[in-house]
Amino acid sequence: MTAPNRPAREDQQLSSSELGNAAREFYSKMDIIGNEAEAALHATRDRYGRTVHPTAAAAARAHRDSAAVEAYAAHLAPHAEALLDAARLVLDGLPPARHLAGWRAVLDNLATSSAEIRRSLDRPTVPGSRDERAEHAALWLYITVWADHGSIASDLADQKAHHEAPLTDEEQRMWTERAHAAQRWGDLELTESWYAADGQLITLANLVEDDDSTVVALRGDPGAPGWQVIGHYAHELEAGQALPPAVPAGVLRADVSRFNRPEPAPDLSLQDLIRDVVEGRSAGDASDALLDAVQHSYPVGPMVQLQNLLQISAQFALALETAQGRQIGARLTALSRQIGFLAGEVADAAQDLGATVGVLPPHRTPVLRVRPRTGVETTPAAPPHRATTTVRHP
User: Fold this and answer.
1) Rounded Cα gap, residues 282 and 355, in angstroms
2) Cβ distance 71 to 150 under 8 Å?
3) Which end of the chain has less neighbouring CB within 10 Å, N or C?
4) How far lies 223's CA from each of 3, 141, 179, 185, 328, in Å?
């Protein structure tokens, strides 16, 4: 809001949609900056993820920080406060839900970051100086708060009222029974889901009956009892116009940042280990590759990485808080345990293989693939003369 005795900001004249578009332009620019910086930093590391060119890495980060400051100043700085005002206004009008307190905390953090960036932009340093690089490096953390979580503010500010024509109780009961029957026969095809501002899960599905398909909207968990049909539509576009709009989806871990990822831990590529076995000559070479595949310490082996992936995926499935998510989470957890057991078996087999102290027999000779080259000015040899066969007539 505009403080007393302070001139009204020009950006407050922008519509909520225009404010959201300005923010999305910033997110798009930051996505490009982040991808380019990640590629540049990757070029400074060896195959295990260790930084081997620190000077080039520092230059890549400095370029990233400067580009981020320019992007924020151009796209978001003139509109950040008005965007937060619009987001808070919408948030205050939403029905009570579990996620509202978290969103308020996000908006507060965005406001703090915006204030820090504004103070820095108001006292510019000498271009190209060490002080400017240090200031940009400090601003990177505040700017990435907006890049990571500003979509909550822009989506809130851009929320539009929907004009759903509710079904009568009788219509809702009839359509719900038809959809439940179709689900039992495998003829209810789920296509998309989202959460509305009141915290309700909404899912679109194709209800197939007698080779005819109708788009229906479900409220509640489609994998658990109690869900209902809240509308039927000719196509998904009509459904999107009538149903409550989607709110930003949640995150698996609250402290994860797309733009501030930790330094990659050294790891081993499965392709590298396969190559080590193919190029090996002794049982020890193959044994070492197998032991590396199940190594828990740095560098981490690919089987351990696969087990970690399954564990994280199980956490994700459980975090969906749906019946199907819980079932799939349990399956992934069981698979993770099986991979752990298998890794132990691989380690035992690798040790046994190494204990054979064997080498490949010499009759397994390499096949050379080198052929003599024809000289540039050498005339190709003439084909051998074919003797003519005399046909004798009786």
Assistant:
1) 11
2) no
3) C
4) 50, 40, 13, 14, 12
